Amino acid sequence: MAGTAVGKGNWANASARSKARKARLLDETRLRQLMRSGPDTIAASIGELDYRKELDIYSSRLSGADLVEAALSHNLDRELAEVVGFCQGHLKSIVSAFVLRFSYSNAKAVLRAVNGGISVEELASSVLPDENALNTDWLDVARQSGTLQEAAAAMRGTPWGSAIDSMDDDANLQEYEDVLDRHYYHEAFSVLKSSGRKHGLLLGYLRTEIDHKNIVNLLRALRQGLPADRRAEMTLGDGRALRGSLLRNATQADSEDALMEVLRRSSMDTSELEEALKKSHEHGGLDPVVSYLANLRRTNLKRMSHLNPLSAFPIIHYLESKVLEVQNLRLLVRGKAVDLPEEVIEAHMSF
Predict the structure, then answer these.
(1) Is residue 139 one of the residues assigned to a domain?
(2) Are residues 342 and 210 in the same domain?
């Protein structure tokens, strides 16, 4: 199979270790039980899982939702580093390429902070807590930078820095983020294509992810009334279903109906997407569309991890499941902190 083990690496061992870690994640039943608890009770409950070390690190200065959120972010960083650490050979290169997306996300967080005038102290107390040694370099970039251009210069020498170092002086934050997205996928594709035989299934997964990003961005741009040339600038190339003339036609579509007509001509099954789009009009936001596409990717990733047990899929499936757990817990504790009804919180969680 195209997604099975190719090249040197501890494929079986890493897959088994990832599956063992995934078995320890919260299931739907436990998450629903936590939904009936307050932030402090949630903190105590997740301390019984794999978050005790990080909770202890932050408990001296934080409490409630702030404590849980900081611990969750720190724990995720540690988990990503440990999983990459137990992978070897070609497998390590592939998993590292996937994990690199989180570094790109941190780069965006720093750029947003610099652009928004957020102080290093605020950044260190929330998004990138300085108790986490992995955040030291990011905070240094923010400390050295007063503009987006200075932040780009401070990131010089990193994979993401090389993508934004040559940006125009008048480039805005969105343009920086678009370039970072393109560069991440370019780097990931390069790694996969150079890892012995092509990892076709993984490449397909990433291309589908690009399609989904393009769909969401185009829908958002249409609702914001952006012109066709700006919509074209926002899209990423190298998708799976939306490529070449279909992608160009999608960027030229001047309404959601016109965009859906283009998608129907692609290889995508659009029936459930159209239902999600209808719900988005009822709710007033794109959350139903984003959730549907994310759930579709997770379902496909789970299927591929089962069909290709000696591949990178079980490791990547675990990492995505870990990220989902962190997202659900963060949403849960933040929702509880502002007294959101349980049905509202549940509607935004994914199981």
Answers:
(1) yes
(2) no
Which of 225, 254, 203 minimizes the C-alpha distance to 97? 203
Mean pLDDT to the nearest integer, 138-160: 91
Identify the three-state secondary structure at position 2.
Answer: coil
Residues 193 and 330 in one domain: yes
Which class for 65: exposed (0-12), middle (13-18), buried (19 or more C-beta within 10 A)? buried
Asked if 17 and 86 count as a contact pair (C-beta separation under 8 A), the reply is yes
CA distance 282 to 172: 32
Q: What's the domain range around 260?
A: 200-310
- Number of C-beta neighbours around residue 306 at 10 A: 11
Beta strands in 153-220 (DSSP E): none
* Rounded average pLDDT over 50-55: 90
Where is average pLDDT lowest: 61-65, 157-161, 193-197? 193-197
Poorest-confidence range of 1-10, 135-144, 283-292? 1-10
Instruction: Give the separation between CA 342 and CA 107, rounded to whole angstroms.
Output: 33
Question: Do residues 23 and 159 both lie within one domain?
Answer: yes
CA dist 29 → 25, 107, 197, 330 (Å): 11, 35, 41, 17
Rounded CA-CA distance 51/34 in Å is: 15
CA-angle at 118, arms to 117 and 120, nearest 5°:
125
Q: Do 151 and 171 fall within a single domain?
A: yes
DSSP states along 205-220: HHHHHHHHHHHHHHHH
Query: Which residue bears the tokens 């965009």?
Result: 259
d(CA 331, CA 346): 9
Across the range 295-321, mean pLDDT stands at 94
**Residue 215, CA distances (Å) to 182, 201, 230 in order:** 15, 21, 14
Closest CA to 97 of 161, 4, 193, 1: 193
Alpha-carbon span 112 to 261, nearest angstrom: 35
Q: How far apart are CA 79 and CA 319, in angstroms?
A: 8
Number of Cβ within a 10 Å radius of residue 121: 11
